[in-house]
Amino acid sequence: MKTASREEIFSMNLSLATGVLMLALKWAAYFITGSAAAFSDALETVVHVAAVMFAAYSLRVVYRPPDSNHHFGHDKIAYFSSGAEGVLVMGAGLVIIYEAVQHWLSGIHLQEIGTGVAFLLAAASINAVLGIYLVRQGRLKQSVILSANGKHVLSDVWTSAGAVGGLALAWWTGLTFFDPLVAILSALYILREGSQIVHHAVEGLMDTSNPKLEALASTALTNFCAEELLTYHRLRLRESGTRIYIDFHLQFPNGVPIEEAHAQATRAERLVAQALPQTADITSHLESVHAPEHDEE
C-alpha cells in the first residue's frame, strides 16, 4: 500500500511546528504593541495552524487504497483539505476587517513598536523560507495538500509585511490610523487568496478539465495511432488529487484478433501514462472502426 512519502510527512510536520512558533511570535507582537495590523497577522496564523492540522490528517488519508465504499480511492480528500483551508482563510479575513474597524472607532493606542516590528520581521522571514519549500515540495510530489499549504504560508508573509508597514508608517508619521488601515488592506488580500484556494478546490471536486494534461495525453495517443494506423476518439481526463484518470476509445479494422487488439491497447495506455507527469489510471475501450457510432454523453 502506498503511503505519504517521508518528505511529505516531514514537510507537514515542519509546517505545523513552524506554525506554533509563529503563533508565539505574532501574539507577542500584538500584546506588546496593541496593533490592529499585528492582530490581523496573529489571527491569520491561528487559522493556518488549524488548517495544517486538517491537512496533516488528509495527507495520511489520501493514499489509502480503494475499498468497497471508495472504488476510486481517497484522493479527493486533498480538495476537501484545500477547500477547508481556503474557507478558514476567508473567515479570518472577515474577522480581521471587523476588528480593525472596531479598533479604529474605539481609539488607537500603540506602544513598543520597535519590539513588535522585530518579532513580525522574524516571523515573516521564517515563513518565507518555509512557504517556498512547501510549494516546491508540492510540485515535486504532485501534492495538492502541500501546494495549498505552501501558498497559505506565503500569503502569511504578506500579512506580516503589511503589519510591519502599518506600524512603521504609524511610528514615522505619528498618524496611527495607518495601523488599522493596513490591517484592512491585509484582510482584503487574505480574502483574495482564500477565494483562489477555494476556487481551485471546487475545480478539482467538479473534475474540471486540465488542457495541459489533455494535450500531453492526446499527443501521445495521436502519435501511437499514426504509427499503428489506428484511430481513437472520446478521450476523457480528470484529476483526482495525486492521480489522473483517463479513458478513450481505440478503433481497429474489422477482423483484428482480440489478443492483438488488446496488446496494442495496452501499449497505447503505457505510452500515454509515460507522457504524463504523475500517476495515471488509464482505461481503453476497444471497438471496430466501422462500428455504429454511440452517443458521447
Walk me through this protein's architecture.
This protein has helices at residues 6-33, 36-61, 77-106, 113-140, 144-173, 178-205, 211-228, 258-275, and strands at residues 231-240, 243-252, 280-288. It has eight helices and three strands. The protein has two domains: 6-205, Alpha-lytic protease prodomain-like; 211-288, Cation efflux protein, cytoplasmic domain (Alpha-Beta Plaits, 2-Layer Sandwich), CATH 3.30.70. The radius of gyration is 25 Å and the shape is elongated. Helix 8 links the parallel strand 2 and strand 3. The chain has a three-stranded mixed sheet with strand order 1-2-3, covered by helices on one side.
Observed structural traits:
Alpha-lytic protease prodomain-like; 2 domains; 3 strands; 3-stranded mixed β-sheet; Alpha-Beta Plaits; 69% helix; mainly alpha; 297 residues; 8 helices; single chain
Task: Map the helices and strands.
Layout: H1 6-33, H2 36-61, H3 77-106, H4 113-140, H5 144-173, H6 178-205, H7 211-228, E1 231-240, E2 243-252, H8 258-275, E3 280-288
Parallel strand pairs: 2-3
Antiparallel strand pairs: 1-2
Helix pairs in contact: 1-2, 1-4, 2-3, 2-5, 2-6, 3-5, 3-6, 4-5, 5-6, 7-8
What's the CATH topology name of the largest domain? Alpha-lytic protease prodomain-like
Class from helix and strand fractions: mainly alpha
Portion in strands: 5-15%
**Fraction of residues in H or I helices:** 55-70%
CATH homologous superfamily caption of the largest domain: Cation efflux protein transmembrane domain
